[in-house]
Amino acid sequence: AQQDWQLLAARGVQGLGAAVLAPSTLTIVTAVVPEGAARARAIGTWTAVGAGGGAAGGLVGGVLVDLLSWRWVLLINVPVGAVVLVGALLWLAESRAGEGRRLDLPGAVLVTAGLATLAFGISQTEAAGWTAPDTVVPLLAGLALIGVFLAVEARTAAPLMPLGLLRVRAVASANAAMFLCGSAMFCMWFFMTLYAQNVLHYTPLEAGLALAPSSLAVVLGSKLAPRLMRGAGPRAVAVAGTLVAAVGFGWQSMLSVHGGYITSIMMPGILMMLGAGLATPPLASLAMSGARPEEAGLVSGLVNTSRTMGGSLGLAVMSTIAAARSQGSGAPGALTEGYALVFRTSTVVLLVGAVLMLVWLPRKTAAASPQPSSVTSSTSSAN
């Protein structure tokens, strides 16, 4: 990329591919593995593999930036993608349930534009304030686009976000919890990296190495969750994981300009990501248990959409909070105050999420309803 728009366009295409890939992999897992303890273990492994990839990516990215340039962080994905493509063609079997579904392009465009516009409006609040036209106009436009998106989804035969599925308690509650957890947990990597580099003056490689234990903690939590679910149930494990993450975020909110690695990065990071690893498999299992086999792809896409939407909007809000507290200063003390406020805010969000899970999530996974789904009904009415 030689210009900003080229980089943004390429990243948009990359994000589109990721948006298709992530739910597809979860759908394959749920199609191959039957409901029950085996599926819980499979979803735990799915989460652990994703976390392991994140850990490797952070380390490799740090090496590439230090030794070569930032461009190699993107270029390295080309050979990796080629290997994955060949492996998928050789070893993955196609799995289809129900009738084929076409891509909901209008819905995809509307929700992407709405979220991007909302995020832009939120980012404007730090410089212009909440009542300035530069803030109000994009916020209202983003909300309007989201409203149009919901109207389109209610009428289309093959919706990107099947609203009828949200009438199922397990699906609705698990996705709401995933949205809240994503809004808090996604920002951890971003602000921990900024703290390590901008305040503690770590190099990119050192920052990647510093966060490696946190990434490994996600893997541990993801593998431990299915075992705990057999005895305590998915709701209890999801709540416990969220509370563990909240403890880690609360600890991280006490960071300082002269913080040490063990107490300011490693230990709170391990708690944050251990909690994330514990919470994700039971939430995904609960959501998938509320779907019929032919709806597995829809629900897996909804799970990933909820987590990504929460993360995107959460990062925009948290970045605005940090910038407002630091008042645009690049001094280590001001930056630290901004980052600390972000982690305190995330702690509150996670505590609210834990209460929501305790009240709304079903105690255990339930078999999908045998009667025709609301998605099928809405499809018939749309036709």
Textual characterization of the structure:
This protein is mainly alpha-helical and 383 residues long. The protein has two domains: 33-76 and 168-378, Growth Hormone, Chain: A (Up-down Bundle); 103-157. It has helices spanning 4-32, 37-67, 71-75, 77-91, 105-128, 133-155, 169-199, 204-210, 212-232, 234-252, 261-289, 296-326, 332-360, 374-382. Helix 10 (234-252) packs antiparallel against helix 11 (261-289). The radius of gyration is 21 Å and the shape is globular.
Q: Descriptors for this entry?
A:
14 helices; disordered C terminus; mainly alpha; Growth Hormone, Chain: A; 383 residues
Beta strands, count: 0
Global geometry = globular
Per the CATH scheme, the topology name of the largest domain is: Growth Hormone, Chain: A
H/E order of the elements? HHHHHHHHHHHHHH
N-C termini distance: 44 Å
CATH top level of the largest domain is Mainly Alpha
CATH second-level architecture of the largest domain: Up-down Bundle
How large is the share of residues in beta strands? under 5%
Name of the CATH superfamily of the largest domain: MFS general substrate transporter like domains
Helical amount: over 70%
